[in-house]
Each structure stands twice: as structure tokens, then as C-alpha cells.
Write a structure and sequence with these properties.
Radius of gyration: 26 Å
CATH class of the largest domain: Mainly Beta
Structural class: mainly beta
CATH topology of the largest domain: Lipocalin
Largest sheet: 5 strands, antiparallel
Length: about 425
């Protein structure tokens, strides 16, 4: 068998794979997230929560995570396009991608039974392969569809690795209810239509993936530099539902902080970059944030379902040209603010990973005041439903006449879409 290279397999919980050993469990933990605006990622039992530099939750996401296989997970923190910034990938329904600032990049809303990451399209990126049980589809790291394999039979599971020795990942996919496998290269070309057994090993991981903070930090044996004096001579320990803050020089704790359960993970970090460390502690119920002395304790829910999403759709600018009354034309667009906000709120409510970003549309109107079209000039939102919703709202407005019969009146609409969680 040949070892797999530069790939990541995330198996769906809907399949049983004999080469693996049981279902992976999503263990709660804390990540030292490498972004100044959102310096902490907390993985809880039902989702992920990002903390802002203001030391409070700013984004909370939940999804139907799925994964089987020893050593595999349904959540990975990886640098998809090798730009030095870490993105978050979640497998299940949906399969989602968040950028380093916790913003949704794109999603496969229907999810995948099996999700794989590897350099399928470019050696400079980690691309995405989705086995939905019927087909194998491959997308670029930023969500562009690349190719699809329809084998004519249901696909049970796939393996990924460099079988041909060309330093590119190949696929071996097993047909459901059969012992037969099909072998495909990274471009979708069928290499062997049917083999009796796979030659690519199951399992694997992406080099350099960000891992959660080691729970040993709470053992009382790992030194930490709480006061940022350059000496890791303080320790954190747990006694029942109490967090103990002490020093290596003494067995007696300096401070005991009462929690609502046993601490399962902790992080020491200067969250707001004021030159002073904070301590973030996770229990099964809550996220605690406190100063390095165990004072000024703040408590937040560790359940993503407790947070309420606040969507915002706002005009950055509205410019109208070639109308008999340009101000009236711009006002016609601004009058749709409520409709634009409502349709965005509806989309955000239906999808945890609805897109955010800038959207620029151009409205064209003729000399009779008749709408001739709403064109997308630029979209930083990788969400077709939001774009379609905005276009639909602007089509319902009543516009004044264009100034000339020979030229259309135009309105450039610049909007910003975002949301946060409280």
C-alpha cells in the first residue's frame, strides 16, 4: 500500500468503514486562534464560538457534524490557500468554511456524506472533494466547482492518496453493496474502473493543522507566565468545580475561582493586547474569561443555541445618474432598506453560514421610468440567495424617469452585509 500525502479525510457518520475503528468524538476544547480581532476559538459539544478582543463571544455556529474513523475529526483549522492565515473547515451538514476572522467564506449547504481536503486542483492550495453518496464532486478552496465523477453506482466511501507517484492525490472509491473500488486521479480521470481491494491507506491528516490547547495546562504541572514577566512560574489546577491559580514555589493556591462545572480546557493569552494576560476557561456549560489574578470574571454560555444572531444590511452609498431627478431616484432605492434587511434576516435565520460582505448592484431605468435591469457589479458575498434577494427587492421599487430617451438612468447601490451573535 502507498501512503497518502497532503490530504485530509473526514468520514461521515452515516458510513461504516472496516479500516477504521469507531466514531470520532468531538471533544470540547479551546484554540489559540491566530487573529488579533478574534483571538480565541472555543469548540463546544454542539458547535464553535469565537471570542473577540473585547473578551466576549462575537460569533457562534452550530451544525450537524459527522465523522467516523480513528484519528479523524469533523472540524479542522487549516491554511487552505497557504497565505499564512488559518481557516476553519467543518464537515457534516452543511460543510462550511470560515475565514480567520470567523466570517463565512462559503458552504455546501446540503452537506456531504464524506468530505476530503487535498491539493486536487493546485499544489498551492487545499481543495475540497465531496462524496454525497451518488457522485464525487471537487471544488477549489474558494468554492469554485472543478469536476464531478458520476460512477453510475452509489458510492460508499473514498480514500485519498498519491497512488500513481506523481505527488498528486488520487481517489479510490468503494461502490455501495460491493467489494469493487474505482480509482480516479485528481483531475477526475478514471484510472481503473474496478479493483477488488484498495491500495491507498485509510486515514491521514494535513500537516500544520492548528490543534486545541493541551488540557495538561490545567494539571498544575505546566508552568504559565500569567503576569508576563518572562517567567513561567505560575500554575493552573483544578479541584472539583474550582479553578486554582498558584505558583510553582508553593502548594497553596493564591486564588480559587468557583466555576459551574469541572474545567476541561484553559488558555492564557493577552486577548485585548493591553499588555496583560487573561485566562479563558471552558466547562461543559460555560466559557469563563477573567484576568490573570482570577478577578473580573465574566461568564458566557458554551451552548451555541443560546446566542441570538443580529443581521445587518446597510447602504454604504447610493449614486444615481442621468435621471431628471437624481435625488428622487436614489431615494427610491433607499426606500427599499426595510425589504433588503428583512430578506437578509430571513436568509441568516435559515442558514448559520449565510454570506457576509460587500455587494454592489447597478439599477437601470428608461425614459418612461420602467426598470430595465438590476446588474451585479461586484459581490464579495459567496451566497447566491442573498444576491438574488437583493435584486428582487430593488426590482419592486418605483423609479422616476431617466433624463433622456437615448440613455438609461443608472443607480449604483453599494451595500454591506454582516451579522454578529449575542
Amino acid at each position: 500500500m502507498k501512503n497518502s500525502t497532503r490530504f485530509l479525510l473526514i468520514f461521515s457518520a452515516l458510513f461504516f468503514v472496516t479500516a477504521t475503528a469507531g466514531q470520532a468524538v468531538a471533544n470540547p476544547g479551546i484554540y489559540d486562534w491566530p487573529d488579533a480581532e478574534v483571538p480565541v476559538l472555543v469548540r463546544t459539544s454542539n458547535g464553535v464560538i469565537f471570542l473577540s478582543k473585547d473578551k466576549k463571544p462575537t460569533r457562534a455556529y452550530s451544525w450537524k457534524a459527522s465523522n467516523i474513523g480513528e484519528g479523524f475529526d469533523s472540524l479542522y483549522a487549516v491554511d487552505l490557500n497557504k497565505n499564512g492565515r488559518v481557516e476553519l473547515v467543518g464537515a457534516g451538514k452543511p460543510v462550511f468554511f470560515l475565514d480567520s476572522k470567523s466570517n463565512p467564506m462559503w458552504q455546501l449547504e446540503k452537506g456531504c456524506k464524506q468530505t476530503m481536503l487535498g491539493s486536487f486542483i493546485s499544489s498551492n492550495n487545499l481543495d475540497i472533494a465531496c462524496n454525497d453518496g451518488k457522485t464525487l464532486k471537487v471544488y477549489t478552496y474558494d468554492g469554485q466547482f472543478a469536476w464531478e465523477l458520476n460512477a453510475g453506482k452509489r458510492i460508499e466511501d473514498c480514500r485519498v492518496g498519491d497512488h500513481s507517484g506523481d505527488l498528486k492525490p488520487d481517489f479510490e472509491c468503494k461502490f455501495a453493496g460491493s467489494k469493487s473500488w474505482v480509482r480516479v486521479d485528481s483531475s477526475g480521470k478514471v484510472l481503473v474502473a474496478s479493483v477488488d481491494s484498495p491500495e491507498i491507506e485509510a486515514g491521514g491528516a494535513v500537516d500544520g493543522a492548528l490543534e486545541p490547547v493541551d488540557p495538561k495546562l490545567l494539571s498544575g504541572e505546566e508552568g504559565v507566565d500569567l503576569n508576563l514577566d518572562g517567567n513561567a512560574d505560575q500554575v493552573l489546577n483544578v479541584d472539583g468545580n474550582n479553578l486554582l491559580i498558584g505558583s510553582k514555589a508553593s502548594d497553596k493556591p493564591v486564588k480559587s475561582v468557583k466555576l459551574d462545572g469541572k474545567a476541561v480546557s484553559a488558555l492564557v493569552k493577552d486577548l485585548d493586547l493591553d499588555g496583560k494576560n487573561e485566562i479563558v476557561v471552558l466547562t461543559n456549560k460555560s466559557i469563563f474569561v477573567m484576568d490573570a489574578q482570577g478577578e473580573d470574571v465574566q461568564k458566557f454560555s458554551a451552548s451555541t443555541r443560546k446566542y441570538k444572531r443580529k443581521p445587518l444590511a446597510k447602504f454604504e452609498s447610493v449614486y444615481s445618474n442621468y435621471f431628471a431627478d437624481n435625488d428622487k431616484a436614489a431615494d427610491a432605492v433607499r426606500a427599499q432598506q426595510d425589504a433588503l434587511s428583512k430578506c437578509y434576516a430571513k436568509r441568516v435565520k435559515s442558514s448559520q453560514f449565510a454570506g457576509i460582505g460587500r455587494l454592489i448592484l447597478k439599477v437601470s431605468v428608461d425614459h418612461d421610468g420602467k426598470l430595465k435591469g438590476v446588474e451585479t457589479v461586484h459581490s464579495g458575498i459567496n451566497d447566491k440567495k442573498i444576491v438574488a434577494c437583493a435584486q428582487s427587492a430593488l426590482k419592486k421599487a418605483k423609479y422616476p424617469k431617466a433624463e433622456s430617451e437615448d440613455a438609461l438612468g443608472t443607480i449604483n447601490v453599494n451595500m454591506e452585509y454582516t451579522f454578529w451573535d449575542e
